[in-house]
Specification:
Blueprint lengths: L4 H6 L7 E4 L3 E5 L7 E7 L11 H17 L7 E4 L15 E5 L9
Antiparallel strand pairs: 1-2, 2-3, 3-5, 4-5
Length: about 110
């Protein structure tokens, strides 16, 4: 998608502080972190949301989240994985992405 900021990051047209990359996804630090650890995992291929993603992609993204939780040293203390979908879900970029949040105690309810 031409004007999608996450597509441009995945294509290397916009820089990011990358923590992981493979053939399917890229993960990088959020530019407006909401926790001491705040990483985004996005598919390289434009996928608007969880509503248009397939099980293989979703499973791979969750595997990457688990792997990164260990590398970012938040696996033992705990972390949160968040996906926002649509306007009421506060999805700010219409490209599927998972937030990995950790490094502090998370509150509930989140909204």
């Amino acid at each position: 998608m031409d004007n999608c900021v996450f597509c441009m990051i995945a294509e290397g047209k916009i820089g990011c502080k990358k923590v992981y990359e493979d053939d399917t996804v890229i993960a990088f630090h959020d530019i407006e972190p909401q926790a001491p650890v705040h990483v985004l995992v996005i598919p390289k291929r434009h996928t608007q949301s969880i509503l248009t993603a397939d099980k293989e992609l979703m499973g791979h993204m969750l595997d990457v989240c688990a792997k990164l939780s260990k590398e970012l040293e938040i696996d033992e203390s705990g972390f949160r994985v968040v996906m926002n979908t649509g306007e009421h879900g506060n999805q700010s970029v219409p490209h599927l992405h998972m937030h990995i949040l950790g490094g502090r105690s998370m509150q509930w309810p989140p909204g």
